Every structure is written in structure tokens, then in C-alpha cells.
């Protein structure tokens, strides 16, 4: 189950090169409203598969109907593809080709609230600033014998030397790490204990 989910996610990831698409706010600051020329707004912009259109509008006045070309030309929602009416609608551009939107409020489409865009396939143009890791880096560091015990802790070094076979090397490490005089004394005492035992 989890394996299949991961595999499907991987397929989705590979199938859509532009994972992080661009959000195009329709009409920019004017939003989705009357008195805005959306053909002018769309001209010069590149809409790529994976991008989103963001419609900002007063939902009590306007809505967004995605329609076909005939609906766009005739300002008709009779062949509506999808309706958006929440006032802040993000429309993902999932495939190449023309996409058409109109406002279904009477008079608004004919008054200019209609948008036609052409969506192009995601090209080889790099849009992501960071390249993912190639996975060729060394995964593990070899020969790391003691991952759990930090070497320079210096909290209670006197607890371990009685059982350790060679207290001299332990003391050398502790002194070189710059521990305090008190702890150093404890280590010296531990060395003595080690010699006595
Ligand atoms: Cu409208």
C-alpha cells in the first residue's frame, strides 16, 4: 500500500517537470472585474502546464466559468466545463491548449469579463532555482565506532574508567579536550583506582 503510494507519487513527480508552477493573478491588482482588458493582460505572458490562474473577485457580483471556445465567443455558459464562485479561485493549468473563462453574470462577459489563454507545454527552461541532489553523494561515513557516546562531554568521566581496560588513554583524551581542574582531578583519581583495581 505504502509502496504503491510512493510509486504513484514518483510517477506524478516525473510526469510533471514543472512541479512548482507560477501563479498568474488574472488582471493583476484589478483582479477579475469589469473594465479590465484581459486580452491585454494575457498578451506577452507565457502560461505553462503546471502554472495556476488565480482569480480574485467579489463573489457576490462575479463568478468564473471555464467554458469552451463557443461559450467564450458567444458569452454562454451552456457548455460550462467548471464553475468557480468562492471569490479566490486557483485554477490549475493541467494541459496544453486554449483555455477560456467568462463571467456568467449577465452583461459581464459581453462587457469584457472574458479571458482566453494559450497554455504551452513545460519546456526545458529551468524555473526552479535549486537543482535536486543527484543522489551520488556518499550515503554513510565508514567506521564510526561510537555514535552514542560523545567524546568531549566531560560530565562524569570518572564513572567509566573502573571498567575500562586502559585508563591512561582515557585520561589523555580528557585532558586534551580541556576539561576543568575538578574533573581532571577526578580522572587522576580514577587512574589511581584503575591501577589499584
Ligand atoms: Cu462579472
UniProtKB/TrEMBL annotation:
Q: Which InterPro entries match?
A: BlueCu_1_BS, Cupredoxin, Phytocyanin-like, Phytocyanin_dom
Compositionally biased spans, kind Pro residues: 139-148
Question: Per its UniProt record, what Pfam families does this chain match?
Answer: Cu_bind_like
Listed GO cellular component terms?
Answer: plasma membrane
Instruction: Keywords in alphabetical order, please.
Output: Copper, Electron transport, Glycoprotein, Metal-binding, Signal, Transport
Molecular function via GO: electron transfer activity; metal ion binding
PROSITE patterns (UniProt xref) = COPPER_BLUE, PHYTOCYANIN
Identify the domain of life: Eukaryota
- Domain Phytocyanin, first and last residues per copy: 22-121
Q: Where is this region: Disordered?
A: 124-171
Q: Which residues form the signal peptide?
A: 1-21
Q: What PANTHER family does the database record attribute to this sequence?
A: BLUE COPPER PROTEIN, UCLACYANIN-2
Instruction: Give the protein name, as stated in the record.
Output: Phytocyanin domain-containing protein
Q: What is the lineage of its organism?
A: Eukaryota, Viridiplantae, Streptophyta, Embryophyta, Tracheophyta
Amino acid at each position: 500500500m505504502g509502496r504503491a503510494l510512493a510509486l504513484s507519487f514518483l510517477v506524478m513527480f516525473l510526469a510533471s517537470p514543472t512541479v512548482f508552477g507560477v501563479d498568474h493573478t488574472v488582471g493583476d491588482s484589478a483582479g477579475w472585474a469589469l473594465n479590465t482588458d484581459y486580452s491585454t493582460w494575457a498578451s506577452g505572458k507565457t502560461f505553462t502546464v503546471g502554472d495556476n490562474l488565480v482569480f480574485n473577485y467579489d463573489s457576490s457580483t462575479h463568478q468564473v466559468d471555464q467554458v469552451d471556445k463557443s461559450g467564450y465567443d458567444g458569452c454562454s455558459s451552456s457548455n460550462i466545463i467548471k464553475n468557480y464562485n468562492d471569490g479566490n479561485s486557483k485554477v490549475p493549468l493541467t494541459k496544453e491548449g486554449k483555455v477560456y473563462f467568462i463571467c456568467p453574470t449577465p452583461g459581464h462577459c459581453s462587457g469584457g469579463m472574458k479571458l482566453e489563454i494559450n497554455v504551452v507545454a513545460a519546456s526545458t527552461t529551468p524555473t526552479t532555482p535549486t537543482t535536486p541532489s543527484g543522489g551520488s553523494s556518499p550515503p554513510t561515513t565508514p567506521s564510526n565506532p561510537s555514535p552514542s557516546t560523545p567524546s568531549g562531554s566531560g560530565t562524569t568521566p570518572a564513572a567509566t574508567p573502573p571498567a575500562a581496560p586502559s585508563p591512561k588513554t582515557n585520561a589523555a583524551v580528557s585532558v586534551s579536550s580541556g576539561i576543568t581542574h575538578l574533573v581532571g582531578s577526578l580522572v587522576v583519581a580514577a587512574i589511581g583506582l584503575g591501577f589499584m583495581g
